[in-house]
């Protein structure tokens, strides 16, 4: 029995060694992902939180506190607003993640020895940003308020050690919008739904044409038409419809079963989802044409799908990634869908806020489809074509 096991194992080792791609995937891909993901998180902390300031008490004291935020690498002060009513618009547009509000009587109350509140509003849909905002804002505020209190007590002749003990920090309040209870399901589930749909759809579309070739049924497929356009679109359509149905049902499960708020318009979500699904199905067909067999198509689709969730900016903010990682993220369809999916649901944003992402996804989908049609015609129909000819056929 042991000899048989060893013979089979030896044979399999030889097969793996002969197939260089399998060998690379087994031995090197996990190491590659470890390096890639380690580099993605190399900053270790969330930095560059896009922040606005509303200063109702202009003074040297309030300016010093604002400067403290400005000097911190954790915050990126993007703008000063006149009124807190402007905050909602900028958060929904994605221009800021947090806002610092210094109240009208702040300086006067501090000079009178009273406590005063600094209010931090943060977009609670991303819990990493929320938690980082709370931790770092509290640290900055306490540093300045403790310094103010120590100066006051020392001026009264109190020893520095007693001043430290007596120092009271400025009152600090945080108001998380859109996910006030920091519900982890609200934060994570919608992104996992989008990732699962991408991974399954991409993989099965990617093996669709490779399977035809491997099983020898490609001639049967070619017998339906002498044009590449209907053949490729016919391949895409079933997966497109099934993915659209699955996205709708999975989203409803999240909203109805797990009580994730749906504050936006469901049709806006479907419009963005349609562009996303078009993009990944077209990408899948393109991969399928490139690959020689089902195994290769599966491997290549997984190579694209696995890192997408981490690079999409859904959990770890894009601005905290190294620049090369940001470039990779902008090449992945999930980047333009997952975060917008959550923002539509939790923030209730309309189509005007996700127009750019929808256009990018739609444009990528059209480009991938055209490339897939051209590749299919050249590889399987032994013909030559151009983008202009394909556009004319469509």
Mean pLDDT score: 82
Strand order of the largest sheet: 2-1-3-4-5
Largest sheet: 5 strands, mixed
Range of helix content: 55-70%
Q: Quick one: how many beta strands?
A: 5
Flag low-confidence runs.
158-167, 383-387
Secondary structure class reads alpha/beta
What would you report as the Rg, rounded to the nearest angstrom?
28 Å
SSE string, helices as H and strands as E: HHHEHEHEHEHHEHHHHHHHHHH
Strand content: 5-15%
End-to-end Cα distance: 61 Å
Globally, the shape reads elongated
- Total domains: 2
- Give the count of helical stretches: 18
Search tags:
single chain; 394 residues; alpha/beta; 2 domains; five-stranded mixed sheet; 18 helices; elongated
Secondary-structure blueprint:
Elements: H1 2-18, H2 20-27, H3 29-40, E1 49-55, H4 60-71, E2 75-81, H5 87-92, E3 98-102, H6 106-111, E4 117-123, H7 127-155, H8 160-166, E5 171-177, H9 184-215, H10 218-222, H11 228-257, H12 266-290, H13 294-305, H14 308-311, H15 323-329, H16 338-347, H17 351-380, H18 387-393
Parallel strand pairs: 1-2, 1-3, 4-5
Antiparallel strand pairs: 3-4
Outline:
With 394 residues, the chain is of the alpha/beta class. It is built from 18 helices and five strands. A five-stranded mixed β-sheet has the order 2-1-3-4-5, with helices on one face.
């Amino acid at each position: 029995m042991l000899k048989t096991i060893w013979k089979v194992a030896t044979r399999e080792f030889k097969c793996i060694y002969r197939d260089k791609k399998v060998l690379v995937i087994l031995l090197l891909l996990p190491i590659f992902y470890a390096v890639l993901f380690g580099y993605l998180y190399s900053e270790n902390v969330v930095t560059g939180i896009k922040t606005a300031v509303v200063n109702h008490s202009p003074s040297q004291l309030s300016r010093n506190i604002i400067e403290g935020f400005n000097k911190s690498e954790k915050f990126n002060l993007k703008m000063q607003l006149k009124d807190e009513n402007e905050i909602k618009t900028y958060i929904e547009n994605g221009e800021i993640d947090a806002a610092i509000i210094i109240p009208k009587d702040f300086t006067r109350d501090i000079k009178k020895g009273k406590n005063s509140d600094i209010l931090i509003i943060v977009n609670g849909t991303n819990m990493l940003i929320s938690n980082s905002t709370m931790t770092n804002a509290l640290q900055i505020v306490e540093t300045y308020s403790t310094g103010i209190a120590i100066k006051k007590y020392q001026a009264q002749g109190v020893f520095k050690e007693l001043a430290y003990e007596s120092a009271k920090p400025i009152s600090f309040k945080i108001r998380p919008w859109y996910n006030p209870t920091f519900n982890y399901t609200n934060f994570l589930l919608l992104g996992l739904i989008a990732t699962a749909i991408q991974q399954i759809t991409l993989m099965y579309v990617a093996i669709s044409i490779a399977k035809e070739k491997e099983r020898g049924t490609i001639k049967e497929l070619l017998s339906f038409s002498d044009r590449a356009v209907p053949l490729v679109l016919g391949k895409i359509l079933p997966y497109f419809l099934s993915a659209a149905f699955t996205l709708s049902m999975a989203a409803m499960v999240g909203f109805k079963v797990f009580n994730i708020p749906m504050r936006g318009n469901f049709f806006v979500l479907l419009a963005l989802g349609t562009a996303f699904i078009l993009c990944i199905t077209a990408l899948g067909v393109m991969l399928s044409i490139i690959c020689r067999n089902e195994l290769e198509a599966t491997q290549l689709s997984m190579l694209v799908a696995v890192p997408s969730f981490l690079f999409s900016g859904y959990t770890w903010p894009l601005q905290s990634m190294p620049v090369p990682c940001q470039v990779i993220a902008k090449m992945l369809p999930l980047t333009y869908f997952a975060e917008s999916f959550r923002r539509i649901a939790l923030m209730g944003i309309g189509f005007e806020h996700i127009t750019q992402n929808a256009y990018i996804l739609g444009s990528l989908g059209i480009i991938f489809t055209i490339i897939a049609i051209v590749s299919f015609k050249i590889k399987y129909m032994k013909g030559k074509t151009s983008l202009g000819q394909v556009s004319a056929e469509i």
